[in-house]
Design goal:
Helix content of chain A: 55-70%
Order of helices and strands of chain B: HHEHHEHEHHHHHHEHEHHH
Structural class of chain B: alpha/beta
Radius of gyration of chain A: 24 Å
Shape of chain A: globular
Low-confidence stretches of chain A: none
Number of domains of chain A: 3
CATH class of the largest domain in chain B: Alpha Beta
Strand order of the largest sheet of chain B: 2-1-3-4-5
Oligomer: heterodimer
Helix content of chain B: 40-55%
Largest sheet of chain A: none
Distance between the termini of chain B: 60 Å
Structural class of chain A: mainly alpha
């Protein structure tokens, strides 16, 4: 079930209504049932995978607690704890690998053997990638790690823990919640909080705006150009690549925002997943503000355990590159994602390695790092670098990505920017004007966010008549300008495939 | 205190909801399939006619609304008719239009063009010609029609009742006219529902004897039975007819049999092509439809049949009658 589907517009109010009406004792069970129903609407069979992952990590939590209380020396206890963690990781990542990476691994092994003249026929495993498997697997694994690190006690109530893994607002595309935040909030059923619900509603509205009005509108242009990049070379591809950066931001942050809003209706605060990432002035800063829940997951559970920056410069660089390559692979079983991740890792390594030289240059040229002009330039360069890497993310293959880059450079057609040629790529002039206005609105909202001003709170502080009209007009604007098809068909969120 | 606050909050939510619904409703009124606007005009024109004034009403698909001219019926035979046919009117659509029109008029004869008589609307797209049902006033007939057309597809109902949801992409092609009140032009009024085309496409009309023949579906038969029963109850005679075009017509045998069994007339003008005097070189506007000349020939032929077989008023003998005023300039309102 998609957030932007008619089904969800019925499902969500029903879930809320029942949740606040039924006795406290069964509220969590109701949410658990609703969460499984939400997932099973996509593929009922694959609910068994969430259940398996839940059972394994739940058991690992209890075993870790038991190990801690063992009457044995510390070395034995640690060995037991590590064995439990290893088993939990191996089984969960095993499931993930089978469903997500098995065909990728088999195909590439076959190709590798072919290089040494051993020809094998590549077997194909007939599996469908379960929606959101990477998200809930990582969320469940974070729980095992948190119990192992004594950051939380193991959860004894299986149903509560199962709800933590499957909580429907963030089940299929994050934010990847931490047990410290979400499990604690799920401990007690909530009473209806009017103020939170109001805030949640505005968040959902903003999320729908990002997804339906911006992301899905941009997708029309980007899909047309990238779908036929041999015809649409040069400035078409440059424009499509610039817009794809906005599309993926709006698509993914749109989902996270709707998830946060939906959770607030249930009295739960999910973590922020995006903090105006395109206003970042370095790639490192970009990654601290983009898909925050995944970046921080990798930092806490991969980068730091590998030694982080504590084992010297070269090891730090290697750790960073590893994290970003794995992050790329997390997104999908394709080398394009690996290249995208690797590129972002290299940006950061090069950025850090050249920092002393750049500092000297800034000092020698008497530039002011804090001046607005300098910061705008830094943000523009960061955006250009990140956007360049999105080419690999969006392309169907590495070869396609190189062809696209070549076509961008080789085809010279700057006149298409002004002669209206763009309007033949799925969006007419009026749609482009609307898009420009909406991107400006997003930019303004992001600037406010970076300055610590949450526009939804500003709106909620206004007089009642303003709020009424604002909400009514905003809903109508999303309905009117959203892209959701004549048959009320909803376009899937890009991050569902991960 | 808490109770007062709760009441205030509930009121606040309800006002926001009501405002949103009001704005959505207002926006929705602007979003209608543009190719059904003429049907809205046609219906409004029909409702504006004096009650029980029309003696012959024509129903059916575009083969009828572009294929029989009420003015010719009046001028040649003095028949007072109204053309209530519309694009892709399937037999259940026709039934809905008939039921609705009987609330306002008591015709003596109805002409049902049978191009789509063997079919009913199924899995209908809520953003297309099904929208014509919005322009009729008989809620009961419309509800039944929608039940057949949409089945249990909830999305179709949502789209039908809130057209902005399915037609919102048309926002960039809205014009001043879309925001204005419906205006029925004098020229539209003067045609009594008939929409003519005067272009000429040369056609070769196939031999009707070579057409593959299908049986009427059970659903279509059910709808026809309902129409016959309603007409019998109201003492209205039914004449089925088919206008020629360049494709095949597959219900000749079935309609002949059905008409016979139910005491109705059926005139297949494919069969009577030469008798009517159609000319493939001059009487068609495109591959599917008659032009003004062809529509007049159909009217001539059917008019003669009606005059001969049914007791109809010669309105030409009545001074300042509705059709005279409509066709020759003066409005009847």
């Amino acid at each position: 079930m998609l957030f932007n589907s008619v089904g969800f517009l019925i499902f969500f109010p029903v879930v809320l209504l029942v949740y606040y009406v039924i006795p406290k004792k069964i509220k969590q069970l109701w949410l658990l049932a609703a969460s499984y129903y939400f997932y099973m609407c996509w593929n009922a069979k694959y609910a068994i995978l969430i259940l398996t992952s839940t059972a394994i990590t739940y058991a690992s939590g209890l075993l870790l607690e038991k190990a801690k209380k063992m009457d044995a020396d510390e070395i034995t206890i640690n060995r037991c704890k590590k064995t439990v963690v290893a088993l939990s990781f191996a089984s969960n990542l095993g499931i993930l690998c089978y469903f997500k990476y098995a065909n990728f691994i088999l195909y590439n092994l076959t190709q590798a053997f072919a290089l040494i003249h051993i020809n094998l026929s590549s077997p194909v495993i007939d599996v469908i990638l379960p929606v959101g498997i990477s998200f809930y697997t990582f969320q469940a694994l974070s729980y095992t790690m948190d119990v192992y690190r004594d950051e939380i006690y193991a959860e004894r109530n299986f149903f509560r823990y199962a709800l933590f893994v499957s909580f429907f607002p963030q089940l299929v595309a994050g934010p990847i919640e931490r047990s410290k935040n979400l499990l604690r909030q799920l401990a007690e059923p909530k009473k209806f909080d009017y103020d939170m619900a109001r805030e949640g509603f505005l968040l959902m509205l903003w999320g729908f705006f990002l997804k339906l009005v911006l992301a899905d509108r941009i997708a029309v242009f980007v899909d047309t150009v990238y779908g036929d990049y041999t015809t649409y070379g040069g400035c078409y591809l440059i424009a499509a690549t610039l817009l794809f950066a906005v599309q993926i931001y709006c698509d993914f942050s749109g989902y996270s925002t709707i998830a946060m809003g939906a959770a607030m209706f249930l009295g739960i605060r999910l973590m922020e997943n995006f903090n105006a990432p395109y206003l970042s002035t370095s790639v490192g800063e970009f990654w601290r503000n983009w898909h925050i829940s995944l970046t921080s997951w990798f930092k806490d559970y991969l980068y730091i355990p590998m030694g982080g920056s504590r084992k010297g410069t070269w090891r730090k660089y290697l750790n960073k590159l590893t994290v970003f390559l794995v992050s790329g692979l997390w997104h999908g079983a394709q080398f394009t994602y690996v290249a995208w991740g690797g590129l972002n890792g290299i940006y950061q390594i090069v950025g850090e390695a050249t920092k002393p030289v750049r500092d000297k240059a800034v000092s020698a040229l008497k530039l002011h790092r804090n001046s607005t002009g300098h910061r705008i330039m830094q943000a523009a360069v960061t955006f250009a670098l990140v956007d360049f890497s999105w080419i690999f993310f969006r392309a169907r293959s590495i070869q396609d990505a190189f062809n696209i880059i070549h076509s961008m450079i080789a085809v010279k057609n700057p006149w298409v920017i002004i002669d209206g040629s763009f309007y033949s790529c799925g969006l007419d002039e009026k749609n482009f004007r609307l898009l420009t206005a909406c991107i400006l609105l997003l930019l303004i909202a992001d600037i406010f966010k970076r300055r610590g001003i949450q526009l939804r709170k500003v709106i909620l502080r206004q007089d009642y008549w303003f709020r009424w009209i604002f909400i009514a007009v905003s809903v109508c604007a999303v309905v009117l300008f959203g892209k959701y098809g004549e048959r009320l068909d909803s376009a899937a969120f890009i991050y569902f495939q991960f | 205190m808490n109770r007062t606050r709760t009441v205030k909050r509930i009121i606040s939510c309800m006002i926001t909801l009501a405002l949103t619904a009001f704005f959505l409703h207002k926006i929705s009124s602007v979003f209608v399939p543009k190719d059904t606007i003429d049907c809205k005009c046609q219906n409004e024109l029909f409702y504006s006619l004096p009650k029980n004034s029309v003696e012959v009403i024509i129903y059916g698909s575009s083969h009828a609304y572009r294929g029989i001219n009420p003015r010719e019926l009046y001028e040649k035979y003095g028949i007072g008719s109204f053309n209530s046919a519309w694009n892709w009117q399937k037999i259940d659509t026709t039934r809905m239009f008939i039921e609705d029109s009987f609330d306002y008029q008591k015709p003596r004869v109805i002409l049902i063009e049978a191009f789509n008589a063997g079919e009913v609307k199924e899995n209908a797209d809520p953003g297309s010609e099904i929208f014509t049902s919005k322009y009729i006033r008989n809620d009961r007939s419309r509800r039944e029609y929608l039940r057949n057309a949409f089945g249990t597809n909830f999305k179709s109902y949502v789209g039908y009742y809130f057209p902005v949801l399915i037609l919102h992409d048309n926002w960039s092609s809205l014009t001043k006219e879309d925001f204005g009140e419906l205006e029925i032009s004098d020229s539209f009024r003067s045609r009594m529902g008939f929409i003519y085309t005067d272009g000429v496409t040369r056609l070769e009309i196939p031999d009707y004897k070579t057409f593959q023949q299908y049986a009427l579906s059970d659903d279509a038969k059910y709808q026809l039975d309902k129409i016959v029963s309603l007409c019998n109850k109201n003492g209205v005679k039914i004449v089925f007819f088919t206008n020629p075009y360049s494709g095949e017509y597959n219900y000749h045998d079935a309609m002949t049999k059905y008409a016979e069994e139910n005491g109705c007339a059926y005139l297949d003008l494919f069969e009577r092509y030469d008798e009517v005097g159609f000319d493939g070189e001059a009487d068609f506007s495109d591959s599917g439809h008659l032009n003004m000349y062809g529509a007049n020939k159909t009217a001539d032929y059917l008019g003669a049949f009606l005059k001969e077989n049914y007791e109809l008023t010669d309105f030409r003998q009545i001074k300042d009658n509705l059709w005279q005023r409509s066709f020759y300039g003066e409005s009847y309102e």
